[in-house]
Specification:
Blueprint (H helix, E strand, L loop, with lengths): L15 E7 L5 H11 L4 E9 L4 H4 L2 E8 L4 E7 L9 H4 L4 E8 L2 E12 L3 H6 L11 H10 L10 E13 L8 E7 L5 E9 L4 H14 L11 H9 L7
Parallel strand pairs: 1-5
Antiparallel strand pairs: 1-9, 2-3, 2-7, 3-4, 4-6, 5-6, 7-8, 8-9
């Protein structure tokens, strides 16, 4: 199979590049065997999203997310995707915790920006139980980012809790490849799942590392071509009445 050629166009504001591949269903057994051989134990997460029933925020390029993490601090995130880095103010670019990344998904590249803050244990669960407002999960700076980019017609009271989705995350150092590879398995309540493989690298190494990643996967029997199902879109669609992962 020919190696996928990928040239990433990089804006100077981009701080990291994440190259992602969704494993085809026929390749999932290969992934699981590789994870078993690695001996690494997964980190368990529960991920929640917050949007309207019509996914008005997502359609406007804004994603609100909270994660309960088994081995680390819980967090909440405001993500802008897609975003043009040239339209972001220098004030945001200098804000602590604000990150601009380029996502390479299949043959597509999408720039995103995000601002995350830690959450005290139990706070995400209180929101899920209806004992705390969704808005309380987000800091004043995160709220300001939402106000700048979300439609003005949407209020916090319009948002629904979408989740949770169960996530297992592994970070492995596969033999014969010079980068750490992250594997995430997302499982919806209907039992359908999606496995994503990714690497995160510095922008100046992006093109060489991306090509090497594709070659490594192909050499180990993985399919790198075909439609790519993005986990966020598929998850949001499921929790607003659509189908699970294909």
């Amino acid at each position: 199979m020919p190696t996928v050629q990928r040239t990433l166009e990089l804006d100077p504001a981009i701080q990291a590049v994440e190259v992602k591949i969704t494993a085809q269903v026929k390749d999932e057994a290969l992934v699981r065997k590789a994870l078993e051989r690695s001996g690494e134990k997964p980190e368990h997460r529960q991920v929640y999203f917050y949007d309207t029933a019509e996914l008005a925020l997502f359609d406007a390029g804004v994603v609100l997310r909270a994660r309960k993490v088994s081995e680390s601090a819980d967090d909440s995130t405001v993500k802008l995707r897609p975003v043009d880095p040239t339209t972001l103010s220098e004030a945001w670019k200098q804000t602590d915790g604000f990150e601009i990344e380029l996502d390479g998904v299949g043959d597509s590249t999408i720039c995103s920006a995000k601002l995350s803050v830690e959450q005290a244990g139990g706070e995400i669960g209180k929101v899920a139980a209806g004992d705390r407002e969704i808005r309380k999960l987000f800091s004043a700076e995160q709220e300001r980012l939402v106000v700048e980019h979300a439609p003005t017609s949407i209020t916090w009271q319009d948002l629904q809790i979408l989740g949770p989705v169960e996530v297992r995350k592994w970070k492995i150092d596969p033999k014969g490849f010079g980068e750490d590879v992250v594997a995430e398995e997302w499982t919806l309540p209907d039992g359908s799942d999606l496995i994503e493989l990714s690497i995160k690298i510095e922008p100046e190494r992006a093109n060489d590392a991306s090509a090497a990643f594709m070659s490594f996967l192909e050499d180990n029997g993985f399919t790198t071509e075909g439609d790519q199902q993005t986990k966020t879109r598929a998850t949001l669609t499921y929790f607003t009445g659509g189908a699970g992962f294909a």
